[in-house]
Amino acid sequence: MGTIRPEAIRADMRFLSDSLLEGRQTGKRGHEIAARFMAAQFEELGLEPAGNKGTYFQSVPFRGSRADESKTTMSWTAGGKEEILSDKRDFLA
Questions:
Q1: What pLDDT score does 73 carry?
Q2: Where are the alpha helices (H) located in the chain, listed in sequence order?
Q3: Residue 17: CB partners within 8 Å, gap ≥ 6?
Q4: pLDDT of 52-72, one tens digit each?
């Protein structure tokens, strides 16, 4: 626990959420950059690769998806109070 540094976590999150990664959409350049960044982080931590051919990556066939925005919501409960969030306003599905 002593090696966890909040400023390092913030720096990583700033990088991964930067618009230069183009939303990290599946199959896009920004997604590949983010995936390689995370693989490098796993390697630095000494985690053993468990993906395809001894890598940190796993091939998963995926063509795409489209959320029905009118039916897409998310909620959470905190302090006994439920808060309902709307797609595109409060989060991106």
A1: 83
A2: 6-17, 29-44
A3: none
A4: 999 999 988 877 778 787 888
Instruction: Note whether 73 and 87 are within 8 A (CB).
Output: yes
Q: What are phi and psi of 35, to 5 degrees?
A: -65, -45
Structure tokens, 21: 């990664």
Looking up tokens 């309902």, which residue turns up? 84
Q: Which tokens go with 5?
A: 């540094």
Angstrom distance (rounded) from CA 91 to CA 93: 7
Q: Which of helix, strand or coil describes residue 51?
A: coil
Contacts of 39 (CB under 8 A, 6+ apart): 55, 56, 57
Q: How far apart are CA 29 and CA 83, in angstroms?
A: 34
